[in-house]
Amino acid sequence: MKRDKFYTTLHNGTNMPWVGLGVYQAEEGEEVKNAVTTALQHGYRGIDTASFYGNERGVGEGIRESGISREDVFITTKVWNDEQGYEETLQAFERSRRNLEVDTIDLYLIHWPVPGKFEETWKALEELYKQGKVRAIGVSNFQQHHLEKLLKQASVKPMVNQIEFHPRLFQKDLLEFCNSHRIQVEAWRPLGKGNLLSHSVIQNIAEKYNKTPAQVLIRWCLEHEVATIPKSVTPERIRDNFEVFNFSLDPEDVSSIDDLNENHRYGYHPDEFPYDDMQG
């Protein structure tokens, strides 16, 4: 697989940025628009949003106002739980595309593995992919058993699995499973909700490399060939979070960060998500 300093190559040949901007909880309007514009001006070329975030319009506006060519920006969005099912997903995709005001979405993901729904949802993603409306398709928050079920019926293999991934939730077995099937893992919440920034191990390593704790955590993902989407709306942090390509971590430092794993989640376990509470 071709590797690049700034891009990973998915199994279908599509290049995806190693580091993108996550916009979860960024307010629709000026806040998300400014975050996107700031990120693109500081070198980011990937923006990750979702139907559920309610800020796709602002993301689209930020991209257009940045002055960066649309072809150079990798846009990810996701189909939410109450939009799943075959026809529902096709309709949800069109809504996202209209909100973003783009012809093609670069990566479209199933946001969570809704029981009894995600298989039909995947068929819709395959159709969108075959029609050329998306450059790549994938999943988010899928455990190994979800992937195994999907792989048995899929005619197009997922290109990405976006999961909660940080030193307190290493998910090494899932990472190895995805790697064995050439499914690119992408980390959400790579900074561990900020709690890891003050951890002594992270702080000591940051001091060693003259980097911020956040930069060390993002770099740790890259050392494991995991793409990532740190979120921020603060210009300085957005800028700093991208300055991770001019150093690498020594193997012993990677190992000491690996050892922080506690299987601790800040978000839901995919098998414990309150799917039954969804409307629609």
TrEMBL record:
**NADP-dependent oxidoreductase domain span:** 24-262
Which Pfam families does UniProt cross-reference here?
Answer: Aldo_ket_red
Q: Identify the PROSITE patterns for this entry.
A: ALDOKETO_REDUCTASE_2
What InterPro entries does its record include? AKR, Aldo/ket_reductase_CS, NAD(P)_OxRdtase_dom_sf, NADP_OxRdtase_dom
Question: PANTHER family from the entry?
Answer: 2,5-DIKETO-D-GLUCONIC ACID REDUCTASE
This one is known as: Aldo/keto reductase
| Species of provenance | Thalassorhabdus alkalitolerans
